[in-house]
């Protein structure tokens, strides 16, 4: 309990500090301008619709009435729904276009733990089934489909998924359908999520899928390290996504870029592209920055920079598998610091399961043009594990100015490589032979 509270306090401090630094000096690079914050002239409060923040009253009807009002009155410029300080227990609910969900300081929107009435929705077409179980899936706690111009923000209020009941169902193998995400936005554009704490998601935390023009910044995302599949932010078959200035500490990947699963993702054919991840700090038993493993629609033009990781499994993880198909290309990770990490860099062509037995074993993924530069690690157990796929060698893997120091002991962290080709400049410890040293300074981004 104390550790969880301490984590939240640390997260809030980080967010407020990064907000202050950015707006005081105004010299930090940002991609947040792709979606300007909307000022709403019309403002309503959840209490106007019977909302009670006592932590016990069920507020589902209040939220649905308020959002119905926003949707049907269609005020010019949209409407801000204000949630004052208090704990508002509710079932899942849908957002609507041209609205701001604003959580005041001390406001908590808390998910009910009554799973029996949780809505079911169809599987995503690029997945073909639920990610965990065949058939449909539970709707996310806060959901949106086919929306535009939606903001979730406030004064570091909290959205609490109370996920432990779902985690136990997963552990006990009693799930009938795939668990709900905390926030999922589908087929939507012009979305901003900022200055909110996300806690204890049942499954993935923030999942924009088939979306464009999405900004996620100044958020805190926390869940216990043993909470299963609680990814932080998963841009999925989405474009123009900006993730900045956030703290994430969860039980799975902090940020994972995805684009569909095997034959379903190949058929849907929507890549993830132009994803920026910048100034993110956190810890996880899995990966800090990940691409995959569901990449069948393709992933391209991803930039992750100024990342700080500690007590984590993998620093950077590019992961795919036979049957995925798709192309992963133009991925750049730079200015990454990691401490107490099992594996610094992992690129793997044998990771992740399959939705069914109908995947095509000849659908090989192609991975090329990965640039990993200005990376520093201390207490790293293994420098790198880079294994491509026979007959689909991963190419253009370029390491530049990478130093990974091991734990105390006589042997430095090692590299292990197979079916990859690339270059290495100023890399310590000495990389594997497949990364032939290039005797020149500067970028190796042009290496093929």
From TrEMBL:
GO terms (molecular function) for this protein are: polygalacturonase activity
Q: Give the signal peptide, or none.
A: 1-26
Question: What keywords is this UniProt entry annotated with?
Answer: Glycosidase, Hydrolase, Signal
Q: Does the keyword Nucleus apply?
A: no
Which SUPFAM superfamilies does the annotation name?
A: Pectin lyase-like (SSF51126)
Which GO BP terms apply? Answer: carbohydrate metabolic process
Q: Which family does it belong to?
A: Belongs to the glycosyl hydrolase 28 family.
Write down the PANTHER family for this protein, in alphabetical order.
PECTIN LYASE-LIKE SUPERFAMILY PROTEIN, PECTIN LYASE-RELATED
Put simply, this protein is called Pectate lyase superfamily protein domain-containing protein
| Species whose genome carries this gene | Gossypium darwinii
């Amino acid at each position: 309990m104390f550790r969880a509270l301490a984590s939240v306090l640390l997260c809030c401090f980080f967010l407020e500090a990064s907000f202050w630094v950015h707006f005081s000096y105004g010299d930090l690079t940002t991609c947040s301008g792709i979606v300007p914050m909307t000022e709403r002239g019309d403002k309503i409060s959840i209490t106007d619709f019977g909302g009670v923040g006592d932590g016990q009253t069920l507020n589902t009807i209040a939220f649905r009435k308020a959002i119905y009002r926003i949707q049907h009155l269609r005020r010019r410029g949209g409407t801000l729904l204000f949630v004052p300080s208090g704990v508002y227990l509710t079932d899942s609910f849908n957002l609507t276009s041209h609205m701001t969900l604003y959580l005041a300081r001390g406001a908590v929107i808390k998910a009910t733990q009554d799973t029996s009435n949780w809505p079911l929705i169809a599987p995503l077409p690029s997945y073909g089934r639920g990610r965990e179980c065949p058939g449909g899936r539970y709707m996310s706690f806060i959901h949106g489909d086919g929306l535009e111009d939606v903001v979730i923000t406030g004064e570091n209020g909290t959205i609490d998924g109370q996920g432990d009941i779902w985690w136990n169902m997963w552990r006990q193998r009693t799930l009938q359908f795939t668990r709900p995400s905390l926030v999922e936005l589908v087929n939507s554009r012009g979305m901003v999520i900022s200055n909110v704490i996300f806690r204890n998601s049942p499954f993935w935390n923030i999942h924009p899928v088939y979306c464009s023009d999405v900004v996620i910044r100044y958020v805190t995302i926390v869940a216990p390290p043993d909470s299963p599949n609680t990814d932080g932010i998963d841009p999925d078959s989405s474009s123009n996504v900006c993730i900045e200035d956030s703290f994430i500490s969860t039980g799975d990947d902090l940020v994972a870029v995805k684009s569909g699963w095997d034959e379903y993702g190949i058929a849907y054919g929507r890549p993830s592209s132009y994803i920026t991840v910048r100034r993110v700090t956190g810890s996880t038993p899995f990966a800090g920055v990940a691409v995959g493993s569901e990449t069948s629609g393709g992933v391209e033009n991803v930039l992750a920079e100024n990342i700080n990781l500690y007590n984590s499994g993998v620093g950077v993880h590019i992961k795919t598998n036979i049957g995925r198909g798709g192309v992963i290309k133009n991925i750049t990770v730079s200015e990454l610091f990691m401490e107490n990490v099992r594996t610094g860099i992992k690129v793997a062509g044998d990771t992740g399961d399959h939705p069914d037995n109908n995947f095509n074993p000849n659908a090989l993924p192609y991975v090329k043009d990965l640039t990993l530069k200005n990376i520093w690690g201390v207490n790293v157990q293994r420098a790198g594990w880079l294994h491509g796929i026979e007959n689909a060698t991963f190419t253009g893997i370029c390491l530049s100015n990478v130093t990974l120091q091991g734990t105390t002991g006589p042997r430095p962290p090692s590299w292990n490589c197979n079916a990859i080709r690339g270059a290495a400049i100023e890399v310590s410890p000495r990389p594997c032979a497949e990364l032939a040293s290039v005797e020149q300074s500067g970028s190796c981004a042009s290496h093929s």
